[in-house]
Amino acid sequence: MNTPATLTLALSKGRIFDETLPLLRAAGIEVLEDPETSRKLILATSQPGVRVVLVRATDVPTYVQYGGADLGVTGLDTLIEHGSQGLYQPLDLNIARCRVSVAVRADFDYASAVRQGSRLRVATKYVAIAREFFAAKGVHVDLIKLYGSMELAPLTGLADAIVDLVSTGNTLRANDLVEVERIMDISSRLVVNQASFKLKQAPIRRLIEAFAQAAGAPQ
Ligand code: PRT
Ligand code: MG
């Protein structure tokens, strides 16, 4: 249970866990187990009152919103899609940086499709971000929700374009796709349950301050 005496931090395995570790270390907190080798979902730390729970990246905001965790680290992409109700967002951690972009097949003339007012079929996991972006541009789109392997959609004819995360661009290049629009820059945010922030104010404030210093971000 997440009790008043414990501070529970929700993280997802992979880049968010890996890039949060140095921030925890800066706050004097060592995670005592390695999620890649352990099957445990609740990880103890060097501070008896602090524990880490491992959840799917898209479930982090949900855990924090409903108090299954007091705090969590989540990509801005995930946060926008989830919505920020019940979540306090005190800090940009500047980790897991990437961007949300529009990409198409190298042989698809995106600029003239947009100029001619064609209706575009767009596949994405980021339906809210894509809807808002194309609406602001005045481009009519049919959005097709996917949960993974977005890059495949233009290659199979499922869609004209995708809206996806890009970091190095290697995945797009490997699939003969080109980035045609950059929608927004993404980094991971600290999110805090609003009730926890009131009830566990002192330890949460200490953690925010240590994270802010380590992340080099103004609070
Ligand atoms: O992978 P899984 O289905 O379990 O969950 P997830 O994809 O939601 O989690 P995870 O751990 O992959 O991503 C968590 C968060 O990391 C995202 O919400 C982003 O905020 C952030 N992040 C930063 C990224 C990337 N960089 C990134 N490059 N998330 C995903 N990618 C993927 C991207 O989707 C594409 O398939 O990597 C590929 C592109 O990388 P490049 O370097 O080839 O351009
Ligand atoms: Mg992933």
From TrEMBL:
Domain ATP phosphoribosyltransferase catalytic span(s) in chain numbering: 56-211
Subcellular localization, as worded in the UniProt entry: Cytoplasm
Annotated GO MF terms: ATP binding; ATP phosphoribosyltransferase activity
Annotated EC: 2.4.2.17
PROSITE patterns per record: ATP_P_PHORIBOSYLTR
Enzyme class, first EC level, given as a word: transferase
GO cellular component: a single term: cytoplasm
Keywords (A to Z) from UniProt: Amino-acid biosynthesis, ATP-binding, Cytoplasm, Glycosyltransferase, Histidine biosynthesis, Nucleotide-binding, Transferase
Pfam family, one: HisG
GO BP term, example: L-histidine biosynthetic process
CDD domains for this protein: PBP2_HisGs
Domain of life: Bacteria
Gene3D superfamilies in the cross-refs: Periplasmic binding protein-like II (3.40.190.10)
Catalytic activity: 1-(5-phospho-beta-D-ribosyl)-ATP + diphosphate = 5-phospho-alpha-D-ribose 1-diphosphate + ATP
Coiled coil: none
Pathway terms, separated by semicolons: Amino-acid biosynthesis; L-histidine biosynthesis; L-histidine from 5-phospho-alpha-D-ribose 1-diphosphate: step 1/9
rRNA-binding as UniProt keyword: no
Described purpose of this protein according to its UniProt entry: Catalyzes the condensation of ATP and 5-phosphoribose 1-diphosphate to form N'-(5'-phosphoribosyl)-ATP (PR-ATP). Has a crucial role in the pathway because the rate of histidine biosynthesis seems to be controlled primarily by regulation of HisG enzymatic activity.
Family to which the UniProt record says this protein belongs: Belongs to the ATP phosphoribosyltransferase family. Short subfamily.
UniProt domain comment: Lacks the C-terminal regulatory region which is replaced by HisZ.
Protein name: ATP phosphoribosyltransferase
Source species of the chain: Ramlibacter rhizophilus
Classification lineage: Bacteria, Pseudomonadati, Pseudomonadota, Betaproteobacteria, Burkholderiales
Gene that encodes it: hisG
